[in-house]
Amino acid sequence: MTTPPSLEVSGLAYAYPDGHQALFGVDLTVGRGERVALLGPNGAGKTTLVLHLNGILTGGAGTVTVAGLPVGKKHLAEIRRKVGIVFQDPDDQLFMPTVREDVAFGPAAAGVRGAELEAVVRKALDRVGMAEYADRPPHHLSFGQRRRVAVATVLAMEPEILVLDEPSSNLDPASRRELADILRSLDVTVLMVTHDLPYALELCPRAVILSEGVIAADGRTGEILADTELMARHRLELPFGFVPSSVV
Hints:
One of its GO terms (molecular function) is ATP binding. This protein has helices spanning 46-53, 76-82, 99-109, 114-127, 143-155, 173-185, 197-203, 221-226, 228-233; strands at residues 7-15, 21-30, 35-39, 61-66, 69-70, 83-86, 161-165, 189-193, 206-211, 214-220. It is an alpha/beta fold. The strands form two sheets. Strands 6-7-8-3-9-10 form a six-stranded mixed beta sheet, with helices on both faces. A four-stranded antiparallel beta sheet has the order 2-1-4-5, covered by helices on one side. The longest helix has 14 residues, at 114-127.
């Protein structure tokens, strides 16, 4: 039996109650284990698309399927376990007195208890290199450490898809590199929403440009970043000194 892709989006269109049309028929398939960068200017519809992946937004046209399950009320609890979103600000995700309790929160709510819960927490913290900080209050950690703990809170649920919202923002160079090493090591499908184009190139072999509510490009990240006309058309710019020829 063929394993379904991690994500299938077909004909997804969505308008907000105020009439603003954010998506105009998005088609996107992401295979298991792929790492894909979702690029685009502000207002392109990236957040709207992401919020459809775990059923926070519903009611538009088209379909979204995660690991073969249609996103909808019937499968909502399972879908929200399968789609783990790491917010841009880890302080939006960490609210318990200790790191251990933050990472345990999701599995405990799902009914995991005792030694099994401790093992789940330990594994998730090990995967992000934060096991030795389990008893620390999150607000005593550096920003980069808090972001790694936020990733662990999602990994503890064993997601199908890890969605990262601007994962490199506000990180110093060492923290940025450490997070990149962690993300490369994970055996999970990654959808990375980012304006950090060099980081997208480093971590994601494939990139998708979402612009004005439609998929404007889908291909190898290096080739997309080297297409100066395409980049300019969709208000995407590489950092000063990062020449397009270096990304092919």
